[in-house]
Amino acid sequence: MDNNAEFEFKKWLDMHNIPYWYIHQDIDTFSSGLKKYFTKRPDFFLLIPNFGFILIDIKDKKSAEKYEKFFIDSDEVEKYLNLQRIFNLQMWFVLSNEDYHYKTWFWIPMSKIAKTGLFFQSKDKGNMCYSIPISEFIQVSYDDSLERVFTKFLILPQEILGFQANEWIAV
């Protein structure tokens, strides 16, 4: 495992008996055929019974000190969006850090970052980033199961649905 967050996430998966494959990050295990698609390799392949799977990239990341936001490098987001678009794969970021003792995980689908994140240039490093409010993430505690992610994710806002739940659609 490359960092503490990956190791702690693996422990969370094992505790909840969630099937997964850890994707080894050695250079020799990255297909040369993928390079032409400008993609990146995620950390985990989560297998979800009766649903399929999602790809997860774990980040050991702190929120911005003055704001309740996470900043995520735009190049990395674009590479994962390529992976998602080209191969029709669902790609998510899952973030945590030592400040949370890896007991709170912040989940967000890659497509939501591109839709809701503010695109800006970082003052300290000069790279382009997305600024995403913590409220846009699905927060999952150590005791929560994977069901929390899908329960929160599947509750779609009315503006996405195009009508209120109590309205009937005339055909």
Characterization of this structure:
The chain is of the alpha+beta class and 171 residues long. The protein contains 5 helices and 9 strands, in the order αββββαββαβββαα. It has helices at 4-15, 74-87, 110-116, 147-154, 158-161, and strands at 20-22, 44-48, 52-60, 69-73, 91-96, 104-109, 118-121, 128-133, 138-141. The strands form 2 sheets. The chain has a 6-stranded mixed β-sheet with strand order 1-2-3-5-6-9, with helices on both faces. β7 and β8 form a beta hairpin. α2 (74-87) packs across α3. The longest helix is centred in the middle third of the chain and has 14 residues, at 74-87. The N and C termini lie far apart (54 Å).
Strands, total number: 9
Low-confidence parts lasting 5 or more residues at pLDDT below 50? 158-171
Mean pLDDT: 85
- Largest sheet data: 6 strands, mixed
SS-based structural class? alpha+beta
Q: Specify the overall morphology.
A: globular
Question: How many helical stretches?
Answer: 5
The Cα radius of gyration reads 17 Å
Strand fraction: 25-35%
The arrangement of helices and strands along the chain is HEEEEHEEHEEEHH
Relative helix content: 25-40%
Q: What strand line-up does the widest sheet have?
A: 1-2-3-5-6-9
Q: N- to C-terminal separation?
A: 54 Å
